[in-house]
């Protein structure tokens, strides 16, 4: 559910929504959502001074309901 919500949010921001891929990974450090986007969209997802990325992390943290979730942004 979190991966789908994050993918929906990111697809609304980028110019290449078909290139958005969100992977849900569990590790010993907790749950990680990896967001892969087209190289031209990476700056758009990060935003000025990281504001957009921070906002995405805040929203996903609220939806997670206290679960420790990390969001990583990666260009394809």
What distinguishing features does this structure have?
76 residues; alpha+beta; GMP Synthetase, Chain A, domain 3; 3-stranded mixed sheet; globular; RNA binding; KH_sf_prok-type; KhpA
Description:
It is a single chain. The chain is an alpha+beta fold and 76 residues long. The protein has a single domain, classed as K homology (KH) domain (GMP Synthetase, Chain A, domain 3). Helix content is 38%, strand content 29%. The chain has three helices and three strands. It has helices at residues 2-11, 42-46, 51-64, and strands spanning 21-27, 30-37, 69-75. It has a three-stranded mixed sheet with strand order 1-2-3. The radius of gyration is 12 Å and the shape is globular. The model has no long low-confidence stretch (mean pLDDT 93). Keywords: Cytoplasm, RNA-binding. A probable RNA-binding protein. Belongs to the KhpA RNA-binding protein family. One of its GO terms (molecular function) is RNA binding.
């Amino acid at each position: 559910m979190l991966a789908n919500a994050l993918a929906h949010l990111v697809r609304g921001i980028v110019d290449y929504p078909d290139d958005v891929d969100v992977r849900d990974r569990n590790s010993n450090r907790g749950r990680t959502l990896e967001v892969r986007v087209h190289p031209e969209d990476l700056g758009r997802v990060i935003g000025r001074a990281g504001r957009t990325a921070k906002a995405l992390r805040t929203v996903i943290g609220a939806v997670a309901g206290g679960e420790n979730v990390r969001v990583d942004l990666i260009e394809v």
